[in-house]
Design brief:
Four copies of one chain form a homotetramer.
Chain A lengths: L12 E11 L2 H12 L2 E5 L3 E5 L9 E5 L6 E8 L2 H13 L4 E4 L7 E5 L5 E5 L22 E9 L2 H10 L3 E8 L2 E8 L7 E5 L4 E8 L4 H12 L6 E7 L6 E6 L5 E5 L13 E4 L15 H5 L2 E2 L17 H13 L1
Parallel strand pairs in A: 1-4, 5-8, 9-12, 10-17, 13-16
Antiparallel strand pairs in A: 1-5, 2-3, 3-4, 6-7, 7-8, 9-13, 10-11, 11-12, 13-18, 14-15, 15-16
Helix pairs in contact in A: 1-4
């Protein structure tokens, strides 16, 4: 039921690279990501803060931008392998009748702004300014020791169509979620792990969350404890828990603007082409919880809009079993 | 507001020792404690299963007894230091007009059955058959590598009176929970850590939970994963989370009979007499959650009865903020 | 000083895949890899045992073969991306005047045996029989929970020439070790981490070690403890320690035939082409130890021969500071 | 073969409490203990620095004193339970003809200086100024997150006599090391774990090491990495490794003055009187290494003198198998 993957795609996207987020208070958000998540500030000005994970050699995997208005997501960024892949990408997007525009972005090589068919704002580049990897500078560690940006999860009004689009760019599904023959979630990768881009059916395009890898599971607790100590106890939005698809341990935190960041441990290696994607059969997303309570309605429905993007609702909105519904059913059963 | 502690008590209780539980299906319960919690079977018959933690030299810290009727808690056991402490205990309980009876218990030295003023069934002994500590026999590890029984939590209809009783036996509070001048929770110890016996205000006497220590925090996740894999995913009753009082990481599991076992990491050392108990001010227990959602009503109210003990309700039943109430308030706020 | 890398190589090797080892006692070796390393047996016959790591979907990353004679390494295997890459590889090796032979290997797709210019025995395939990933089947975990084969380290009589050869196949250096303008160690990868193939200057070709990834650092200790408990305490050949190049935590074990297996935690992500390889300046390898003692002479010099391969000594044998030399110098200094 | 223990000792020593060390450079030593070990500075002056572990409520478990001369150990401190125990102690020591002197020590209650029969400098007090436990203040964690002082190891010229002395004070052996009927090591406790005081046969009295507990095993590696990063890579004196007696994971570091600090994970609970001490039969200490190499001669012989104490050699000096001897034997075997 999954779309055909192009194993020799028109250009070579290698990995999820960076996210650019509007924030209402640059300093407060920077502190959140440094003190709780454990990112390192590469560079900071009055309006921009560039951060990276401890094991990243790139200049930034997160750019916080002081917002004057709504705290949107400006772009999610992907790397391409070589500079020539950018030219191929530009040509390809134009051929598809999709937006493609060259832009200048500090600390990045030639950069291309493109959009997928639902208006998801993408940014492609082949290079960034190189920085020192800090993964052994233990004395500089803070927060949950986030190592590197891993993946994005976006909302799409038509998961199959989005999945089909990214399959043409060589993205493959490690796992997927379906109800009957309806695709509800596509967990897609380029870089040889489970995920670079997860696509989930809901009103979109929106950015549901982005994820950083932590090196060991105990740091999930460190993140929660630090969230609590820094006044973000109520921002532990979901978890700690164990994913169905992908199988990672996770916790989701809401940053000061409500952008959702996931911390998860590493996942398995993919790469080999003979391995079939794992199917999760689901009447609703929540049936894939291995233990613990279902996620809240907020977790299922809240996501960050992309700057300037208009959204579309799916033909049928998914109806996952939320914590709220679960509790109400239990109370009704007890009353009944 | 806490009762006076007798620092030279009439006899020397040294630690929480063991729990004796009725179970509906001996084999199923044994498997639960071996495969998920990680206890080791010392000895098993058709009607009894004796288990111990990996670092315990005692013959048993848990005795499962095949039940014909209700799955009650038969006894919670404490050790006294020397055999002569048993005689002093027998004398003291009789002087108080409380039950005290010598019994024969396999693999235990002279054993005394006593009750606190609310009828909590206690068992005291000075010695057990000695077994090999297995904490380095890595090849025999299963489950969450539970190391040793740590503490019990009981319900009392009058926490202050119960606390006063155990204070006379030399138990000290590491921390306590109060609302105004009403004591709601007493976290008491003998053995130099935070806890041997927690007493919480509710209809009692009942056994709310018992706790085993796990050596490292990642084993909290192992316990949850194994619970899920063995069909007990819905039995993860609370957590993983971080305690207010005591500050341990925890997860609570329900065994096949609904007996509640906590797995928690170690706690701080107490011993020194100049350190004051930590007070937690609480309108309700749930306000002490550092991060994550409140516990369910089930967690607050469900507990195992003691065999043959009649229970009493507190003058005022505590009214903690449950997950159910929390969710309903949130839904009402959104609707309103 | 490093050779030029072909970023569009003639065929696409994707990763280190598997190792085929002769062993003197199949059952004993299988037990070693299952009980200490934590591999899972996929299939076993009287003469062959196929094993895989917990997160591997491939049929085998290790094949143990009952030896009648010397316990050599038969082959180290790499995956290519698509079947058509095998044809391209066959053509390319023949053009270079290097051995290339199609062979039939159970549970592998079309398989090609080739050799590098120094006679290192390589095996290429695009596909294997797919097996279930077991990384969440906690109840089946044994040993140190090895997740997946990560890399090989081989001896080459001319590291630069070997590095140049693999660079033409698209292998890139994450890090390298040099003394002046002499390349002593090349740490090369294809799969987006630090390593698929490490090449170190010494009499070769030989297989110095292969490495499996463990998911968390505490499992380094688990491996050592299990080695001790199973009678292999003296087989802890080096470590636990922290690498200079790559920065991983490691321990090296010798299996019953003296084949050396490394267990290490994960490494950083590479992929991006603008990042320069890290240079380690070294009079000898041992100067890169961050803490702890130098490795023994045995660790530096002992390696497994490839089946039927004749070896060549380097023009100049490296002279690393061994533990033996270090201790003798210290004793001499004290005596002097 | 072990001395008789007095289970109702003349006064109640409860635990190892603190160590007072001369250091050549107060600031450098403080940095070592804060940045690598992870202690917290409670108070610092130009001549004294008081530190405590993260979970300690006491004012100090370590006092660094700026030395003008040799970097000796001034005292090792023990707690007694109640103030009245101090009076009983004073009386008892005087009855034995041993030094006993009341002194004033800042941040301590009434304090008694005493000596054991070999001149080991002891300091007893019942109380200290109480400080906040910081074990959940994750944002303040540094180094290896040392939680609390655990034990001291001293050299004695006659282990049996020392053991007999402390047995009269209620210290019990959890484990011991003997060769035939010669006691070489006594691992003694008061507080319900394995150790408060280890006594090893060598020229003494000297302070061989003191130990802090780390909460999880991965912090052993953190300590090593930080030692390396801060220029103390060569100060990793032994380990990481696994103890024979006690079974803890350990690493030993040398501080800037050569005082030896051990970091180890927690140990098993003792308390119960029916459990016999574990005997380790040993021709030499080093035979009890479970895996890894023997300790160096420096580890066996180097220890910190007590201020002003004259030392005595044992009748027979122990002759453990050192790393140096082990290597020389191996080289001789290869040469022969």
């Amino acid at each position: 039921m999954l779309p055909v993957v192009d194993f020799r795609p028109p250009f070579n996207i290698t990995r999820a690279s960076h996210i650019v987020l509007h924030v209402a208070d640059l300093r407060r958000s920077r502190d959140f990501y440094v003190k709780i998540v454990g990112l390192v500030v590469t560079e900071e000005t009055g309006t921009h803060c560039h951060l990276r994970g401890l094991s990243e050699a790139c200049h930034h995997s997160m750019v916080l931008v002081q917002a004057s208005g709504e705290a949107t997501c400006k772009r999610i960024g992907f790397r391409v392998y070589l500079d020539e892949d950018l030219d191929a990408a530009c040509k390809w997007f134009k051929e598809q009748g999709l937006p493609a525009e060259w832009v200048q972005v500090p600390h990045q090589g030639r950069t291309l702004h493109v959009e997928d068919p639902f208006g998801t704002k993408l940014e492609l580049c082949a290079h960034m300014t190189v920085c020192e990897r800090l993964f052994l500078q233990v004395e500089r560690f803070t927060g949950a020791h986030a190592q590197r940006l891993d993946h994005f999860q976006i909302f799409s009004p038509d998961t199959w169509k989005s999945c089909e689009f990214y399959s043409r760019l060589g993205f493959r599904n490690s796992e997927y979620l379906a109800h009957g023959d309806k695709l509800l979630g596509a967990f897609m990768y380029r870089k040889g792990t489970c995920l670079d881009l997860a696509i989930v059916e809901s009103e979109g395009p929106k950015m549901h969350h982005f994820a950083y890898i932590i090196p060991e599971s105990h740091l999930i607790f460190t993140a929660c404890d630090l969230a609590g100590n820094h006044g973000y106890g109520a921002s532990v939005d979901r978890g700690p828990g164990r994913h169905g698809p992908g199988g990672m341990l996770y916790v989701y935190l809401l940053d000061p603007d409500g952008h959702r960041v996931e911390l998860c441990d590493g996942h398995y290696q993919t790469i080999d082409t003979e391995v079939e994607p794992v199917r999760w059969d689901a009447a609703s997303l929540s049936t894939n919880v291995r233990w613990g309570l279902p996620a809240t309605a907020h977790w299922y429905s809240h996501a960050t809009p992309f700057e300037g993007a208009s959204t579309t609702r799916p033909a049928t909105m998914p109806n996952p079993l939320t914590l709220e519904t679960y509790i109400q059913r239990q109370l009704a059963a007890q009353a009944g």
